[in-house]
C-alpha cells in the first residue's frame, strides 16, 4: 500500500522519475509498473543492475527492510526506507553501517516532521517560548479491524511487524515527540492485546517517560479505540502550552504572547485534509512524503545528510524497544542516548 504513496510523491518532483520496481510477487510488480510507468523486474538484483536507478525506496514489511538496504548499498544506490527503519536497534545499526561504508545516503520516512505545524512547534521549542519544558505527551488512539491484521501474514508478528500499535502506527508520533523534546532517559511501560485475535503484538500500550532534560511525559498508543481519533502531541512548559492534532495546532498559548500568535492560530486551523490514518491506513496524503523526497534529492545535490537520516530513524526504534522491554520485565529501562549519533 505505502509504495503507491512513494510513487505519487516521486511524481510530484520535476527532477525525479520512477524508473523501476520489483516485488516478491511478479504480478504485483507488473501491475505497479503499468500503473506508474516504470519497468518491472523479477528480482532485486536485476533492479539494482539498472544503471538508471540511483535511489532505492524500500516498502517491504518492517522486519524485511535490512536485506534490501544492504543489497542496495552494496550496489552503490542511495536508500530511502519506509518507517520504521527496522524492528531492532541491531538491524538499524547494520543498515547505517552498510550505507556509511558504501558512501551512500540513508533516509527514514517520517513525513510528519515536514508539516508546517510540526515545524512551528519545533521552532517554538528552539526559541524558548515554552520556558522550562515540563511535559511532552503523545496520544495515538486509532482503530484497526480484525480484517486489517488478517490481510497479511506479516501483520501483528514480532519478526516482520516488529510490534503492534507502537512500532507500526504510533511510531510517527514517537519520532515527533523525540524531535521536539529531545532524548528519553528512562521509561516504564505496560502493553496488552485486548481487542484483536491471532496477533503476537500489542494493540494497547502506555509508557511513562523521563526525558534527558528533566521533563516528564506519556505515550499512549492503541489500535483498539473505535472509531479512531486524530493523533495528538502536547507540549507544556513554565511559559507555554501547545497542542498539535494531526496537522492542526489546536492550542498555542504563551506567556510572552506576540501580535502574530492569533493570526498563526487561525492559519493553523483546518490543515488536516484526511482522516490521518485514524481508522483507515490509506487515509493519508502524500504531500509530506514529497517534501521528504525533495529534501533527500537536495541533500544529494548539496553533499549533506538528509534531515531524517539513519541515526534519526534509529531513535524511535530504540525507544519503542525499550518500552517493550519495560512492559515485558515490569522494570524501569534506561536508554543510553535515545539513538543519537555518537559524538
In short:
The chain has 343 residues and is of the alpha/beta class. 37% of the residues lie in helices and 21% in strands.
Structure overview:
This protein is α/β, with parallel strands linked by helices and 343 residues long. It folds into two domains: 2-111, NAD(P)-binding Rossmann-like Domain (Rossmann fold), CATH 3.40.50.720; 112-284 and 310-334, Dihydrodipicolinate Reductase, domain 2 (2-Layer Sandwich), CATH 3.30.360. 37% of the residues lie in helices and 21% in strands. The chain contains eleven helices and 13 strands. The protein has an eight-stranded mixed β-sheet with strand order 12-11-10-6-9-8-7-13. It has a three-stranded parallel β-sheet with strand order 3-4-5. The two termini are 38 Å apart. 46% of the residues are buried. Mean pLDDT is 94; it is low at 338-343.
Distance between the termini: 38 Å
Task: Report the biggest beta sheet as strand number plus sense, adding barrel if it closes.
Answer: 8 strands, mixed
- Taken from the alpha-carbon principal axes, the silhouette is globular
* Total number of strands: 13
Characteristic terms for this protein:
2 domains; 11 helices; 37% helix; Dihydrodipicolinate Reductase, domain 2; 13 strands; eight-stranded mixed beta sheet; 343 residues; 21% strand; three-stranded parallel beta sheet; alpha/beta; Rossmann fold
Amino acid at each position: 500500500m505505502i509504495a503507491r504513496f512513494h510513487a505519487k510523491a516521486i511524481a510530484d518532483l520535476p527532477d525525479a522519475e520512477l524508473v523501476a520496481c520489483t516485488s516478491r510477487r511478479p504480478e504485483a510488480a507488473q501491475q505497479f509498473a503499468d500503473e506508474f510507468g516504470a519497468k518491472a523486474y523479477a528480482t532485486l538484483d536485476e533492479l539494482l543492475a539498472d544503471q538508471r536507478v540511483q535511489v532505492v525506496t524500500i516498502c517491504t514489511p518492517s522486519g524485511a527492510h535490512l536485506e534490501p538496504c544492504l543489497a542496495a548499498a552494496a550496489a552503490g544506490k542511495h536508500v530511502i526506507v519506509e518507517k520504521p527503519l527496522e524492528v531492532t536497534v541491531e538491524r538499524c545499526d547494520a543498515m547505517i553501517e552498510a550505507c556509511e561504508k558504501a558512501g551512500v545516503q540513508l533516509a527514514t520516512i517520517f513525513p510528519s516532521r515536514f508539516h508546517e505545524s510540526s515545524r512551528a512547534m519545533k521552532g517554538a521549542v528552539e526559541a524558548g517560548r515554552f520556558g522550562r519544558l515540563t511535559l511532552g505527551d503523545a496520544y495515538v488512539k486509532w482503530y484497526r479491524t480484525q480484517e486489517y491484521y488478517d490481510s497479511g501474514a506479516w501483520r501483528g508478528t514480532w519478526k516482520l511487524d516488529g510490534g503492534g500499535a507502537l512500532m507500526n502506527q504510533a511510531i510517527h508520533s514517537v519520532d515527533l515527540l523525540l524531535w521536539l523534546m529531545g532524548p528519553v532517559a528512562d521509561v516504564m511501560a505496560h502493553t496488552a492485546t485486548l481487542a484483536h485475535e491471532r496477533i503476537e503484538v500489542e494493540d494497547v500500550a502506555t509508557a511513562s517517560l523521563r526525558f534527558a532534560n528533566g521533563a516528564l511525559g506519556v505515550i499512549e498508543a492503541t489500535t483498539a479505540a473505535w472509531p479512531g481519533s486524530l493523533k495528538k502531541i502536547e507540549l507544556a512548559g513554565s511559559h507555554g502550552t501547545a497542542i498539535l492534532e494531526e496537522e492542526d495546532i489546536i492550542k498555542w498559548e504563551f506567556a510572552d504572547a506576540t501580535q502574530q500568535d492569533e493570526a498563526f492560530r487561525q492559519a493553523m486551523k483546518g490543515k488536516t485534509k484526511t482522516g490521518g490514518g485514524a481508522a483507515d491506513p490509506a487515509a493519508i496524503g502524500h504531500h509530506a512524503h514529497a517534501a521528504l523526497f525533495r529534501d533527500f534529492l537536495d541533500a544529494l545535490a548539496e553533499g549533506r545528510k538528509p534531515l531524517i537520516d539513519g541515526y534519526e530513524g534509529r531513535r524511535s526504534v530504540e525507544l519503542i524497544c525499550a518500552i517493550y522491554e519495560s512492559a515485558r520485565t515490569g522494570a524501569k529501562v534506561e536508554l543510553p542516548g535515545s539513538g543519537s549519533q555518537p559524538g
